[in-house]
Design goal:
The two termini are 22 Å apart. α2 runs parallel beside α3, α6 crosses α7 and α6 crosses α8. Helix content is 41%, strand content 21%. A hairpin with a 3-residue loop joins β10 and β11. It contains eight helices and eleven strands. With 224 residues, the chain is an alpha/beta fold.
Length: 224
């Protein structure tokens, strides 16, 4: 699951980012309204966590513009303000939920997961390739009747490959969508995690669902 966090308080943003990643989310952080608007309209996210008080553009304006552009990603608004008028303004502009600072991280995670559950089946389809089935909402993976246990990163990698099944995706695309758009570590981390994933979804079943295209990237076979 990909979360866009638009928050200009550096310490809070880093704390929330780390917490979300420990829960299995892939998090992209933007520190200004214009940067958040660009990411929200140019990339795909499952949830947007949006502060109201931002430099460049307020969270209200960012929300208004992304809804004008028909971006229907669920939005959870964050603000230091507290009052019925602020909450009403956010909801009227198209926010799906509202959380006042300071907040409990447990509550934030619960609100994010609730937003994910509210999405329509068209927005959150069950993904499959042959007998391999991944349910994003339940965070479950099965191969036929066998339930598979994946780490959060393995799950995110498999979900990304399933969403692009039949298409060769580069290591850079995988890093941007499964790790972070600003990841600066070694690219071979992708090879390492593809290896982990193969040991769980390929090797026990005597098949090769994930194909390596040398010099290009990886492809998940359409029929599993």
């Amino acid at each position: 699951m990909r979360v866009l966090l638009v928050e200009d308080e550096e310490l809070l943003a880093e704390t929330v980012r780390r917490g979300l990643e420990l829960e299995g989310f892939v998090v992209q952080v933007a520190a200004t309204g214009p940067d958040g608007l660009w990411l929200a309209t140019e990339e795909r996210f499952d949830v947007i966590v949006l502060d109201i008080m931002l430099p460049g553009l307020s969270g209200y304006e960012v929300l208004r513009r992304i809804r004008t552009r028909d971006v229907q990603t669920p939005v959870l608004m964050l603000t230091a303000k507290n009052g019925d008028h602020e909450e009403a303004d956010a909801l009227d502009l198209g926010a799906d939920d509202y959380l006042t600072k300071p907040f409990s991280f447990v509550v934030l995670i619960a609100r994010v997961r609730a937003l994910l559950r509210r999405q329509t089946p068209q927005q959150r389809p069950i993904l499959s390739a042959g007998d391999l089935v991944l349910d994003p909402a339940r965070r479950s993976v099965r191969h036929g009747a066998v339930a598979l246990t994946l780490t959060p990163r393995e799950f995110a990698l498999l979900e990304f490959l399933l969403r692009r099944k039949g298409v060769v995706v580069s290591k850079q695309e995988i890093l941007r969508n499964v790790w972070d758009a600003h990841y600066e570590g070694p690219e071979n981390v992708v090879e390492v995690y593809v290896g982990y994933l193969r040991k769980k979804i390929d090797v026990p079943f005597g098949r090769s669902v994930i194909e390596t295209h040398r010099g290009v990237g990886y492809r998940l076979a359409e029929n599993g």
